[in-house]
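queue> holo job accepted (GMT)
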Amino acid sequence: MRIGIVCYPTVGGSGVVATEMAQELAQRGHEIHLLSYDRPGRLRRGISGLRFHQVQVSAYPLFRYPPYDLALATRMLEVREEAKVELFHVHYAIPHAVSAFLARSMCAPEACLRFVTTLHGTDITVVGADRAYMRPTRFAIEQSDAVTTVSQFLADETRLVFGVRSPLHVIPNFVDTERYKPGTNGRWYQRADEERILVHASNFRPVKRVADVVRAFAAIQRQVKARLLLVGDGPDREHALAVASDLGVQHRVEHLGVRDGIEDVLADADLFLSASETESFGLSMLEAMSCGVPCVSTRVGGVAEVLGDTGMLTAFGNPDAMAQAALPALTDAERHRRLSDAARRRAVELFGVDQVLQTYVDLYQQVIAQPARPAVGGATR
Ligand code: GMT
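queue> job finished
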């Protein structure tokens, strides 16, 4: 198949999922065209069958907000015409689904443009519920040829918040279980004797509550000698590090910044901590599970669908409860081994890349086979 994939290039989970999907599909013989305003961080070079198309946005002095959605719609039309793309898969509804709808509306009536929209989370739970974005987003979701959500929680939320009535396919995120696999401790990080390594990875946005991760860690650190590795970056980094100083654990907290992949860090970790206020899926927790790292997370969104009974869930906004949930797994080796094995097994059995990608490919085939929705125009050039 010839598929166009649209995503954000930043460290957020939707961009990671879309980029990994583009690479995996290309490696399976599909022709993939990846569109974004920048080269995504996870995009490797030299994958045959995969082309990156940068969307250029002109910044005229008149524009306080350059209209990216228009530039993207135009680029989608161009790529469709040049490469005979059969279907676009847009990740994150805002504004990608709206641009896809616009591109389809500009097509000549006989040159239909089909698109699948994948909802990832904040496009529905946070940003989408904003009045300014709600109506066009709902409209574009309903105009999509198929819509997927990364968890049942997000499908329910999409119906609740947006009142969407069209079918929603729940297709979970995936992990490369060969790349993210249990490693030998000490390959990447030389830990001190008896030290436990805890990891948190995210885009450090307010919704991630990184300061609560630090608070939970400080409580753990009072009982067990431990170190916290913070991977990623974003607006709450300074606040989280300031909380570490206030609690006197700054020398035990290391900020590693943004990395291409975190398999090496995870392979050395004992536990993953997440304190998010909402999390439709929790991709970095799946990556941790695949490395055999048990997770302690707030009981929010779709996290329970990912972790099953392989991790510990606690109430949101209660770092002490997170610490209490974490301590048994850090102090009882047998318990840790059981959780670690269960986490790895669950990642392999439910979220392996082959299995999840096949579900997407089946959906693409279904969409291509169904009658096209009409274009409006004919004004393609
Ligand atoms: O807000 C973010 O965390 C970024 C966002 C994104 O779309 O880039 O992440 C969402 O999509 C990820 C991939 O599907 C999910 O793993 C995250 O749970 C989800 N984030 C939230 O729901 C907060």
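queue> The chain is about 40% helix and 15% strand.
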